[in-house]
């Protein structure tokens, strides 16, 4: 059995830029500050192709004719400004950087279909991107792939006030969806620390778990249907809102957790549970078999003891 190696964060992640301080006056790094991509003093992120021994596959490069075609498909949704492309090319941890020269921002599934059909015919590589909050670099290009952003696909299409079934576009921000359904006495079945930026399409594409996983299960169970655009531009309509559907293959399960490798998720149908009437908070304290501190307990003999939260304003003291 191999020994476990502790995770070593790069020093600059924990070291703030000169003059950058948090709410307590201490310098903060990118792990604690979301607006870190353009902070002065932070080191430039090395290109992924220079950092890792990766080889570019024989894809075509974007031409002026391609840009003109994209402008016809998504008028006003083609971004080629190098300064505007800096943030979409860098991952959240600032460890990976691509060199894409084109960012496309469609609004509908039809526009995504036309884009992918054109790229398929021209042999152009495409990198789907949602809120770019992932921490494994899957949302940023490796080379000069076209970035296809779902940021403008942010409409709620329908919500059933009895069953709690929400149908929305993939670019909807999780926090905004949470507010939308909470106003109707429902909650989203997942909650993440990045909910203010992440997109529901990216959550489904990565099969995100989050804080409510143990209570409501994974997205494989709460996602009822998907609309997906395949690499050749074909629109796969599995957007059912039935809680049980035994007709044919359950193709949507292939795309939950596929991270954009099989197709781009454009619309999501998801089951929202009713909003809890009350929320209770408790401390989980690991104690030994004789009530001793867990540090003195034998391995395998730990049990969990639930202690209620102290009254509001009471000081939290460590139990002897």
TrEMBL record:
GO terms for molecular function: FAD binding; oxidoreductase activity. Gene3D superfamilies: 3.30.465.10, Uridine Diphospho-n-acetylenolpyruvylglucosamine Reductase, domain 2. Keywords: Oxidoreductase, Signal. InterPro entries: FAD-bd_PCMH, FAD-bd_PCMH-like_sf, FAD-bd_PCMH_sub1, FAD-bd_PCMH_sub2, FAD-oxidored/transferase_4, Oxid_FAD_bind_N. This is D-2-hydroxyglutarate dehydrogenase. The gene is D2HGDH. It comes from Homo sapiens (Human). Its cofactor is FAD. It holds the Pfam family FAD_binding_4. Residues 96-275 form the FAD-binding PCMH-type domain. Residues 1-22 form the signal peptide.
């Amino acid at each position: 059995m191999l020994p476990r190696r502790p995770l070593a964060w790069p020093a600059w992640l924990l070291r703030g830029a000169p003059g950058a301080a948090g709410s307590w006056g201490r310098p903060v790094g990118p792990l604690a500050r979301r607006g870190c991509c353009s902070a002065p003093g932070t080191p430039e992120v090395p290109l992924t192709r220079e950092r890792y021994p990766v080889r570019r596959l024989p894809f075509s490069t974007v031409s002026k004719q391609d840009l003109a075609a994209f402008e016809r498909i998504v008028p006003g949704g083609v971004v080629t400004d190098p300064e505007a492309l800096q943030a979409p090319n860098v991952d959240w941890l600032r460890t990976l950087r691509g060199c894409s020269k084109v960012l496309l921002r469609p609004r509908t599934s039809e526009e995504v279909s036309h884009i992918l059909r054109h790229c398929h015919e021209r042999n152009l590589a495409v990198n789907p991107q949602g809120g770019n909050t992932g921490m494994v670099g899957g949302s940023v290009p490796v080379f000069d792939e076209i970035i296809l952003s779902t940021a403008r696909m942010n409409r709620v299409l329908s919500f059933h006030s009895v069953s709690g079934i929400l149908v929305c576009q993939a670019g909807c921000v999780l926090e905004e969806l949470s507010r939308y359904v909470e106003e109707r006495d429902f909650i989203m079945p997942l909650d993440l620390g990045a909910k203010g930026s992440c997109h529901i399409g990216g959550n489904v594409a990565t099969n995100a778990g989050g804080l409510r996983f143990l209570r409501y299960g994974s997205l494989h169970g709460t996602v009822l249907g998907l609309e997906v655009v395949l690499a050749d531009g074909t629109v796969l309509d599995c957007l059912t809102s039935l809680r049980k559907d035994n007709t044919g293959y359950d193709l949507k399960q292939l795309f939950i957790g596929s991270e954009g490798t099989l197709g781009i998720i454009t619309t999501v149908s998801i089951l929202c549970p009713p909003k809890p009437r009350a929320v209770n908070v408790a401390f989980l304290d690991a104690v030994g078999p004789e009530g001793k501190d867990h540090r003195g307990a034998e391995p395998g003999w730990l049990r969990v003891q639930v202690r209620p939260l102290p009254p509001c304003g009471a000081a939290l003291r460590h139990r002897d």
